[in-house]
Amino acid sequence: MRNAQDKITYEPVNNDGAKYILQLFVSGMMQNSVRAIRNLNQICDEHLKSNYDLEIIDIYQQPDLAISEQIIIIPVMIIKNPLPERRIFGDLSDTEKVLEILNVK
Amino acid sequence: MASNIIKAPIGSRLKKTPTGIDGFDEIISGGLPKGRPTIITGNSGCGKTVMAMEFLVKGVVKYNDPGVFMSFEETKEDLISNMESLHFDLANLINKKKIYIEYLEIDKAPVVNSGGYDLDGLFARLQNAIDKVGAKRVVLDSLDSLFFGYDKNILRQEIKRLFKWLKEKRVTAVITSQLDHGFQSSDGLEQYVAECVVALDNRVINQTATRRLRIVKMRGSIHGINEYPYLIDSSGMSVLPLFAQLKDHPLSTNRITSGIQDLDGMLDGKGYFRGSSILVSGSAGTGKTSVAISLINETCNKKIRSLYCAFEESSSQITRNMRSIGLNIDRHVKSGLLMFYASRPTIQNLELHLISIRKIIDTFKPEVLVLDPITNMMSEGINSEIRQMLANFVDYLKAKNITTLFTAAITLETIKSNPSDEGISAMVDTWILVSNVELNSERNRVIYVLKSRGMNHSTQVREFVITDKGINLLPIYISNEGILTGTSKLENTLQEEEDNHLRQIRFRTEKARIDRKRTILDADILKLKEELAFYKEALDKEEAENDLKEKLKNTRNDEIQGLRNRTKSSNEKSKGRNK
After folding, report:
1. Closest by Cβ to B113, choosing from A4, A74, A85
2. What pTM did the predictor assign?
């Protein structure tokens, strides 16, 4: 699994006032995608309150975006803001990993 | 053709998508399984991408099938520029929306995993790509890179799903894969998922890089199981079908003149069969090339195109040499009727030569082909393999109704020591032997037709005379001593004259021999006399010495006697004094 064992550390992010801009690429038909949407909504509600913009993109609806973002593995979430841009793939069932990459305590 | 001829089974119920790759469709009975996935495996640098791309390009150009190329390894720009050297006008085909290329970058950014995932991003993009051009052909080059980063079990499952999905889409797909990677692993996923597996291989034989292709698997269809040589050059990929089926070619009863009137006479009076294969063999300097050039010259005189493959001499050397026997072939080169393919066999090996020659034939469309000499090509590689290749090549030429003349430095003697040489002669329809006969301190050429299928050929041995006005075949003269080669229509008087001349030569030779012998004998006599004199002298000397010795001995004896007497008396004297 890619970098699964690696301890990934990110620069401390200043969350004061800055909104999370999140993109979740999904495929409407796939189980993993359905679970990812549910998991992400739950995490956002619990940890980000209203301080986030979440865009859920169906790759079949917006293939050009899938091309420009080089999406192959689904589902994948791209954290556009705060910078640097980060990616996490999977159904986001491992909440710890998601919070870690979002830099939320 | 009669319907009661049983043919080896070819083809199958499966529908095929012809690749359009030169020679490949022949060995895979028509093409790749239509609407099904095929895997092309092979180590890096053996041409998987080229083969896959040519499958798409030829699909558009030859069969009007639009295609999609999903590249995991090279960017679209890199692909386009890499394929430029292959004369695939990719940019144009992309503009016309016949081909769509998309680059899929696996290493976009380091990613963290959280939970289950799938490859649906690829599916969506593939669907999108197929819709863009209405693709009937799809290439995925290659899936290996996926296996470096993700869970193999998930990927295997997803790739199985992908293959199933591709079948549902009814696209003929080609998926490339390196050996020893990903789904080429020990559990052999490709065994289950692909309908067809083609293996490419790059190896070095006799210091020559050799490329080989093998059909590992072809579900529900007959395919060649051997390894086939292939080549990639500026016009793409070419596979040499080694063991293609023996075909029933429409046989020609038309004749083509050999360019040597007397030789035509030996061949039923009409010359070779058009589209047949002719072997002219003989040791060095017997005039094989002259026979070949005569055919070329005569063919070009009739405004028919010929191809001359020279493996020993350069084209300029041949044209110069042929001018000396009255054959001006330079003008045919200038008028475009004659083409030379000159190459040293060491540069490429046989299969590459044959592929190159096939390509020239396809564009130049000659009716007569000369390979001079074929034995030079055979120095490369293993004999049985070579023979198969040549047999197949001969078959191909027959199918094209091309009259082919091979020259070979084989004689009946070399066949004895190397029986495999005979194999070549078995492939040809007409076998002409040229050899040297040495007699009367003169070396002459003789020619005879050893075999010629389907015609009542002459069984005579003729003298073969190369003059500055071309080639003449003369009847030979048989005497008590065997074959005598001399001038042709020898009248009796001339013959007698010749006989006299021969006798005179023989007499002169004999006389010279005897004279020489006498000189030697005289010398011997002189030597013996001298020897005798020497011995005599030695004897005399010995005698004289003996006389002298005897004389001296006698003198000394007297002296000693005298001395003894003197001593005796003096002793007596001294005795008396002492008393």
Report:
1. A4
2. 0.60
